[in-house]
Design brief:
A seven-stranded mixed beta sheet has the order 1-7-6-5-4-2-3, with helices on both faces. Helix 9 links the parallel strand 5 and strand 6. The longest helix has 19 residues. It is α/β, with parallel strands linked by helices. Helix 4 runs parallel beside helix 5 and helix 14 packs across helix 16. It has 16 helices and twelve strands. The chain has two domains: 245 residues, 3-Layer(aba) Sandwich (Aspartate Aminotransferase, domain 2), CATH 3.40.640; 137 residues, Aspartate Aminotransferase, domain 1 (Alpha-Beta Complex). The C terminus is likely disordered.
Length: 404
């Protein structure tokens, strides 16, 4: 690509330097407030969307640099950062909907997102219809013209890596369309290019990429992001400058990390297929994925996540997790360490049994986020741990416990 049309790798390195001056590393602006001029200047700053030099709840130079970088990577006019991915999604839902609004949502969502839509939304008088978003036409068919305000999907979805047809979603007229693209990152897909209105990320995960930042971000048109900024100032969940600095640092190496994690995840998924100890191995890059054709059409990289069912159910899954030595048991993903997660007791622990069943999550469901260790070491550790699933459980083995 020429300098006039840089590649995504180049954008990741060059974007978000608005507050850097001559520094190659992003400067950290720790202040919560700035000295003001007269009343006229103060009022102008207080009412300017995203103003970075007024008060920390309105904006911050380090946070603005992170927002600018993500917006450029997503091909968006603007972005807005939050203290977490759920902070970003909550701002979208509550900033655009009110009593009497209707939302169409995929069943295949992160557990916290599903709880937000089925809990607080119901209390606030916002109706939500959940559909199987893997079925062609399901999202558009559930739209009620003149009443549906949002259509919300996640692709690839947590934890089973189901996909949503982004072209189909982007073609829906009337409501705003939103995709949680956390698992894909801009290197995997760019939903806005498919006509989707807003893309949301838990930038805590692969974007920041080092398990040391808590961040969310939403990208879209400038008008829509500025509207959400007005709600976000009242919501009071801005990204911290320190986390934004770490997020910006993570973006610089995202392409390199995400390519290796994708290659490792695909190698692990292929190694697991056919083993007697596992059922239904899922990775969007596998030919056996039920939406493999869609993955090839809309994803450039298929990501570092693998999900599967441990034969023998919850007890076998518990033995498998306890037997891992290199792979760590934790609820997050996208960092340099390979992590295993038991969704029913971590990411989706707040869902009812029927909601878990709708999402295809059982006690034997396991999700692995591939890190940057040698792929052969990861595969060996997983294979060795799977051998233990055939053994009787020891009464001294720790149980899988819920984590945040």
């Amino acid at each position: 690509m020429s300098p006039l049309s840089p590649s995504l790798d180049t954008i990741a390195v060059t974007a978000g330097r608005t507050a850097s001056g001559g520094s190659l590393a992003p400067p950290l602006w720790t202040t919560s407030t700035f000295e003001l001029g007269g009343d006229v200047d103060a009022r102008r700053l207080a009412t300017t969307p995203g103003e970075a030099r007024f008060y920390g709840r309105h904006g911050n130079p380090t946070v603005a640099a992170f927002e600018d970088a993500v917006a450029q990577m997503e091909g968006a006019e603007a972005a807005l950062a939050f203290a977490s991915g759920m902070g970003a999604l909550s701002a979208v839902v509550l900033g655009l909907c009110s009593r009497g609004s209707h939302i169409v949502a995929a069943r295949q969502l992160y557990g916290g997102a599903r709880q937000l839509l089925s809990g607080p939304c119901a209390r606030f008088g916002i109706d939500v219809t959940f559909v199987d978003a893997t079925r062609p036409g399901a999202l558009s068919e559930a739209v009620e013209p003149g009443r549906t305000v949002l259509v919300v999907a996640e692709s690839p979805a947590n934890p089973r890596l189901d996909l949503v047809d982004l072209d189909e979603l982007g073609a829906i007229q009337g409501p705003f369309t939103v995709v949680d693209s956390t698992f894909a990152t801009p290197f995997g897909q760019r939903p806005l290019a498919h006509g989707v209105d807003l893309v949301v990320h838990s930038a805590t995960k692969a974007m920041a990429g080092h398990n040391d930042a808590l961040l969310g971000v939403v990208c879209g048109s400038r008008d829509l992001v500025e509207w959400l900024w007005g709600f976000a100032v009242l919501q009071g969940a801005p990204a911290s400058p320190f986390d934004a600095m770490n997020g910006l640092r993570g973006l610089r190496t995202l392409g390199v990390r995400f390519r290796q994690q994708t290659a490792t995840a695909l190698a692990l998924a292929e190694a697991l297929e056919g083993l007697a100890a596992v059922r239904e191995v899922r990775h969007p890059g596998l030919a056996s994925h039920p939406q493999a054709d869609l993955a090839r059409r809309q994803m450039q990289l298929t990501g570092g996540l693998v999900s599967f069912e441990v034969a023998g159910g919850a007890d076998a899954a518990r033995r498998f997790v306890a037997a891992l030595r290199l792979v760590r048991h934790a609820a997050s993903l996208g960092g340099p360490e390979t992590l295993v997660c038991h969704p029913a007791s971590t990411s989706h622990a707040g869902l009812r049994e029927e909601e878990l069943a709708e999402a295809g999550i059982s006690g034997g469901s396991v999700r692995i986020s591939c890190g940057l260790e040698d792929p052969a070491d990861i595969i060996d550790d997983v294979r060795n741990a799977l051998r233990s699933t055939a053994l009787p459980a020891s009464p001294t083995e720790p149980a899988l416990t819920a984590t945040a």
